[in-house]
Amino acid sequence: MRRKLLTVITEEALERPLVKIIRDCGARGYTITEARGAGRRGARAPGVEQGANIRVEVICEEQIAWQIAELLHQKYFKDFAMVLYLAEVDVIRGEKF
């Protein structure tokens, strides 16, 4: 069964409001992990007190994924570090997502 994978990489400080948006939009679950890396603005070194980054992954129906993405864009893109992307995924137990 085909679903959307929404991946958000952002500042740890946004975890609670981000989870609320995910839940309010109707997604049934999510996974959050620590994230490190480098980009146009340089690298975030582990252990440096500048705030950690998190990676949030949500597998859900397409309309829910786009709804979450639009809300995050409207609320946070201007003032927070955030990378967001969507991908098609095939899942075995589609009823879970």
TrEMBL record:
Cite the Pfam families for this sequence: P-II (PF00543)
Taxonomy, superkingdom:
Bacteria
- What protein does this entry describe? Transcriptional regulator
| Species annotation | Natronospira bacteriovora
